[in-house]
Amino acid sequence: MVGVIMIKSHNALLSLTFCILLLIIHSSALTNTSQLPCTSKTLDQLQEAVDKLLRQTSASTKETLALIHQSTRLTSETQLNTHQHPDDYSQDFIDKFEQLSQKIWTNDDLYQRIESIPLASLTSADKHTINHAKTLFSRYGFQPETGDIHLTPIAEGKLLNILQYPEPELHQKAHKVTEFNDELQELIDNMLTTMYQTKGVGLAATQIGVRRQVVVMDVSITQNHPMVFINPIVTPIGDTLLTFPQGCLSVKDTMDVVTRPKKVRIEALDRYGNPFVIEDDKLIAVCIQHELDHLNGILFIQHLPIQKQKSIATRLGHLELARELRPSIKS
Questions:
Q1: Of 44, 114, 261, 308, which is the most exposed, with the fewest CB atoms less than 10 Å away?
Q2: What does the pLDDT read at residue 7?
Q3: CB 197 within 8 A of CB 206
């Protein structure tokens, strides 16, 4: 009889323990879903930080960097959380975040404030903050005021294969275009289609194995401002340099900063052979220099120190290449 009572008491204790565990788990689940790391308060903080940054034109470099750091951190954390846990966020929240982010990271005044900060005197952490901000400008397709003279019509083309590092053909130089015929127009349409479908902002003909001086670009947010540069000549204006994060459709999953002339003059022909000139010190300047390198058989990673190149080659599985890399290009 005593044994039966002890068994019943033991079972009751187990049941009670199980119920308590269920309550704890349920309570934890409620806490996790009701206290998401990014909420509407996050968006308010992001807007406030940028407004304050733009308002306080006389703020010290330290204060400015702190606000830039806050803005980039809030943007990146929200991007990461909404991407990894989409079911935890309403579509309304995601839409509002994207609208606010585009408004912020395509703001010319904010870009100019960040550009005005001298890099030479900064710590490595502060330089990282600046480069992080520039990455966001690039990610959101920052588009300078350029007018429409260089825009080109586009017809639906074919998706072409983009050569991948370390394909030797990527190191071949392109030849000048001399004939503006139907074949060239088809090539341009195919290149534009390929660029858009692979989510790029620029593509050189050498990246698809065609040794001709043809570049297509679109740095607009809406991806509906295609540009074509035939036989481009790029001339730096002034001595100011710009360090900007870059990636490449021919070097998968790789991004690093490259220093190039900030402002350039671009002389080129449009898709029909008409000459035009653009002077730019923003994303067009960054992109055209990157694509001109392609036409000269150079990849952006060649601007990096040799140890970084070896690290990239190793990470991408090209161990034999890591031992015999081309020398770094001096920017």
A1: 44
A2: 34
A3: no
Query: Measured between alpha carbons, how far is 233 from 7 in angstroms, rounded to an integer?
Result: 90
Residue 42 tokens read as: 């996050």
What is the value of pTM for the model shown? 0.57
Q: What whole-number distance in Å separates Cα of residue 250 and Cα of residue 247?
A: 9
Which three-class secondary structure state does DSSP give residue 34?
Answer: helix
pLDDT range class, residue 10, cuts 50, 70, 90? very low
Q: In the structure encoding, which two tokens stand for residue 278, read together?
A: 């653009």
User: Residue 257: CB partners within 8 Å, gap ≥ 6?
Assistant: 131, 243, 244, 245, 246
In this structure, are residues 196 and 230 in contact, taking their beta carbons and an 8 Å threshold? no
Record the tokens describing residue 319, joined without a space: 């161990």
Omega within 30 of 0 (cis) for the link into 166: yes
Residue 216 forms beta bridges with which residues?
Answer: 203, 228
DSSP 8-state secondary structure symbol assigned to residue 268: E
Active-site option among 63, 291, 320, 324? 291
pLDDT tens-place string over residues 269-325 = 988 888 888 888 888 999 999 999 999 999 999 999 888 888 888 888 876 665 455
| Closest C-alpha to 293, from 186, 188, 170, 196 | 170
The helix/strand/coil state of 326 is coil
The Cα 267–Cα 81 span in angstroms is: 43
pLDDT digits over 180-229, tens only? 888 998 999 999 999 988 989 999 999 999 999 999 998 876 677 889 99
Query: Would residue 291 show up in a list of annotated catalytic residues for this protein?
Result: yes
What pLDDT is attached to residue 328? 53
| pLDDT for the residue 143 | 53
15-22: long-range contacts at Cβ-Cβ below 8 A with a sequence spacing of 24 or more?
Answer: none
- Please give the Cα distance from 83 to 71 (Å, whole number): 18
- DSSP code per residue over 170-237: GGSPPBPP---SHHHHHHHHHHHHHHHHTT-SEEEGGGGT--B-EEEE---SSS---EEEEEEEEEE-
